[in-house]
Amino acid sequence: MLHDTIAVIDFGGQYAHLIATKVRRLHVYAEIRQPEDPIEMYRGYKGIIISGSPSFSAFGEDSGYTKAIYDLPLPIVGFCFGHQEIAKHYGGEIIHGGKEWGHTELHVCADSPVFKGLGKVEQVWMSHFDTVTSVGPDFEEIGYSKLGAEGDVHRFAAIASEKLKRYGFQFHPEVDDTVNGETIIRNFVLDICVCRPTWTMDNYLEEQVRRIRGRVGDDSVFLLASGGVDSTVTAKLLGMAIGPERLHLLHVDNGLMRKGESRKVLETYKAIGLGQNLHFVDASEDFLAALQGLVEPEDKRLAIGNTFLAVFEREARRLGIEDHLLGQGTIYPDTIETGGTKRADTIKTHHNRVPLVEEMIARGKVIEPLAELYKVEVRELGETLGLPRKLVWKHPFPGPGLGVRLLCSRGESDTTEFERIVPEVKKAAARFGLEAEVLPIRSVGVKADLRAYEHPVLLSGDAPWEKLRQAAGTIFRDVYGINRCLWNLGGGAPRFFRPLAAGVTRERLDLLREADAIVMEGLYRHKVYDDIWQCPTVFAPIEIDGHGRELVIVRPIHSERAMTAAPARLPDTLLAELKASIFALPGIAGLALDITSKPPGTIEWE
Ligand code: XMP
């Protein structure tokens, strides 16, 4: 290995990715390993971190991972589930029970290098059901937890064997709510594993350029350039490594882009010195034809993906570059998710792993220079490459674009569960002084790492933002079958919703483009664009109280990796402007702000 590296064993959820990101921030490389990876794959690491798990219990049943890691002469630390596993492996005991959740006090009760720089009492974040009740002979308790002065003592919240260099924490050092979590991770990685912090972006850039030159040789590279952060950074990096004359960029207008986006993308590539072999094709008719009559989101995604490939093959032949290497902007979480893991959340289909691409990968014809990076690191690399800030911090936009955000319907009301759900929802919302209606459609969400199609609720009434958030955070827990809350910006509480039959048409797309452009322009003008991770604007074909054809849903969110998200508050003046401008568009039935976090909602609707 070129750099000192830590292995992070991924037991699901987003824990492992969060841990890896935190380690990499120390300029030490971290790689995700799957529990079933054979011991040979652990060669060369300087230390191992066992992640927490949303679904595994260390109690009783065998959680089936490569236990031979414990025979390696490497420091190992486990967080939450990993902590329990380490305790168990070395002769400790675990029970079901002793649950702790949320901010908790950690009382440090022994000196340990892993706690260097910490106080005697630290705020940590707990989220567990099982508990360690004793440790084996080589281990000692180095911290216990307690909720305030009155709280019960929970023993063995932190354990260590300095001799074996094994550590376990019942809390999650990787989450920001553990105030000194980064110090603990730093102590483990830099002091205990003795990793040298050489993994800097400058070094990475230099190494990647060398690697790309070695890989490409005298060949040329063909890259689909969407204009998104990942493909733009890939293009710039490839251009730097092999020279713009051997880099062919193809921008496809699939008709599902934002307003004026294709024109801006072409201007951008020229402005960053990649205009030499820049090709453009307007394939919007191909995509519209392929989408005609489709309603189900996965059918639409598949049609878009297949059309993309057909256009790609056709254009590559036309340009005579079909033998070039294919460049892709695949980033690390996608590499991991499609690497066959059973646990990663498979909420979207990956176009960079369709059979044609798989076959090209097998023939060694694909080059993915960002495959080791998280999004935040791609952005850092973009800055290191000198790309303009506006490009590097552009909001993510899904490959299938507005095709995902333009909801389609057969016009059938889905109200089978309403008899139970509606009274429960109204009661739950009334506690917050809000009126509530359940929409007769379903939207996608994510619960326990799986997709869930459930009903959204539309809340109406004036309430402060915090109260709205509380309502949104409570209702989906109180009422089974609900996964989203919207806040009605359209005035009084609507009474009657009728889903309309609607597919993907140019008219609907153009109208959505207008609404989306109004929202994006508003975010810029009110200087909130940079605070927000992403802000989809969605059309649901619903008539409200006998009026209009589209319910417009605006979904501004804060996020760090898109795996979880919190609704973002927009300034009241911006909301008022959006209301005026969006209702001025033809056929608008209503306007709502999606105030759901992820989970239970996803970022996109579909
Ligand atoms: P979700 O909706 O799963 O989104 O919370 C997480 C991130 O992934 C993006 N996303 C997609 N990107 N094709 C893409 O290229 C898709 O089909 C797709 N669906 C979601 C989404 O915009 C967010 O950044």
The global form is: globular
State the distance separating the first and last CA atoms: 42 Å
**What is the mean pLDDT?**
93
Say how many strands there are. 27
Unreliable residue runs = 340-348
Helix content: 25-40%
Please sum up the structure shown.
With 606 residues, this protein is α/β, with parallel strands linked by helices.
Written description of the protein model:
The protein has about 600 residues and is α/β, with parallel strands linked by helices. The protein is globular, with a radius of gyration of 26 Å. It starts with a strand and ends in a 12-residue tail after the last strand. Helix content is about 30%, strand content about 25%. The chain contains 17 helices and 27 strands. Helix 4 (about 200-215) crosses helix 11, helix 14 runs antiparallel to helix 15 (about 465-480) and helix 16 (about 505-525) runs antiparallel to helix 17 (about 570-585). The strands form six sheets. A nine-stranded mixed beta sheet has the order 2-1-3-4-9-8-7-5-6, with helices on both faces. Strands 16, 17, 18, 19, 22, 24 and 27 form a seven-stranded mixed beta sheet that branches. Helix 15 links the parallel strand 18 (about 450-460) and strand 19. The protein binds xanthosine-5'-monophosphate. Xanthosine-5'-monophosphate binds near residues 301, 398, 399, 400 and 602.
